[in-house]
């Protein structure tokens, strides 16, 4: 057993796991904080919706599409000057967060838009008929009704961010991905590669399980 | 009082205006149950949504208690809508809120009620719609009839003066429909609420409405007290609706009449005359023989009525007709 995992430095693995956790956690937080309002706006500006705005919708939708169509590995590189400007470095855990958010927020925004569209139009109409303002319709009816969908969206986004965070190892992003590339790939330490991948698999499994539980808890349908 | 003054509505589809409601005049009196009946696509859904401006009109004025609501700004409109309850075919309850929270929702939106006021009002409404035991359940745990009762309680929460019902019983089975209609009738009587309800079932109109408008292709084609419209339908669309609700096949009826001898009369009894033992005495006095070709006896809201189609042979027809009219029976000569 010892010989089989001779290259594995468990302290290093521990720190790398912690870094991944931080990267995913913080980038998920910012992705939700940015993506949720953007998703709500995308929904409201859409065709035949509460604040129909074809021009604003087209602009917002274009920006989201651009960010989503750039492969994440390219986005990581394109973002470097911007990241340096924003937080002083493009390396390590902190340096990985801006590109992760740039990848995660538009992704999450689309998921929010979709889950809001799935709310029965009749509920919006009923809330309007009660004399609710647009703000009240969003906060009082739309978001609570779409909550299970939004939580499922957060789960999917979190899992996407786990894989993005691993990718950020390529440009020196830190975390399990960084470990896998530096030791597993560049030094041919297959045992390190296997352990990091196994940890990522476990991480994703746990996220999915927790997400599914929450969705179930909040679904009243 | 709800007054429509040349109200019209059209939709822009591909640069062309498609009329949904042709210019319409209509008055709904305070405290009455006003039915709007029509096939799907006739414009009745549009018409009821004009009353709370969920659909803004493209022409004309809508006056509610002498105020032109089409002039309201956004804040005035929101305040006005709180005084107009609405219930829907598919209930449109919030699935994420409990029964009690659904009923409390419009009061919370209004922002002018204290927590205690809301709690007490919710209890009162739960009792009115007999759902006290279901207060903490979610809509998905309720039956269709229970959901609609929650819808009604929610619509009443802010003590509206008008209740709009959009096909409120169309998704319910006949028995549940009965109980929901009874609840609506009780509310109308006890609270003096004006109710405007749209339906495609003449039977719903017959049970609860005072007056009715019949719509066809974006126009009101017939309007009046339910007993007039129901017993003496004039427009072909109205006739279709009445025949449909009475399960009368108009072709079959014509064939039956062909086979009968003598004069054919249709007698309409309303109110007290329904119970008078009239046919026998008229037959004795005038010497006519009659056979009954078709007949129905039922209620329009609370008024009993009967309608008989008779063929009369021999005797003195004038005396018979005179006797019927003297007894307040409406006589129509079909042949």
From TrEMBL, chain A:
One of its GO terms (cellular component) is plasma membrane. InterPro entries: AA_ABC_Transporter_Permease, MetI-like, MetI-like_sf. Keywords: Cell membrane, Membrane, Transmembrane, Transmembrane helix, Transport. GO terms for biological process: D-methionine transmembrane transport. It is found in: Cell membrane. It holds the Pfam family BPD_transp_1. The chain crosses the membrane at residues 20-45, 57-80, 86-111, 192-211. The keyword Transmembrane helix applies. It is a multi-pass membrane protein. Gene3D superfamilies: MetI-like. Residues 17-211 form the ABC transmembrane type-1 domain. It comes from the Bacteria. Belongs to the binding-protein-dependent transport system permease family. CysTW subfamily. This is Metal ABC transporter permease.
TrEMBL record, chain B:
It comes from the Bacteria. It is a peripheral membrane protein. The keyword Nucleotide-binding applies. This is Cell division ATP-binding protein FtsE. One of its GO terms (cellular component) is plasma membrane. GO terms for biological process: amino acid transport. InterPro entries: AAA+_ATPase, ABC_transporter-like_ATP-bd, ABC_transporter-like_CS, ACT-like_dom_sf, MetN_ABC, MetN_ABC_transporter-like, NIL_domain, P-loop_NTPase. CDD domains: ABC_MetN_methionine_transporter (cd03258). Pfam families: ABC_tran, NIL. Belongs to the ABC transporter superfamily. The keyword Membrane applies.
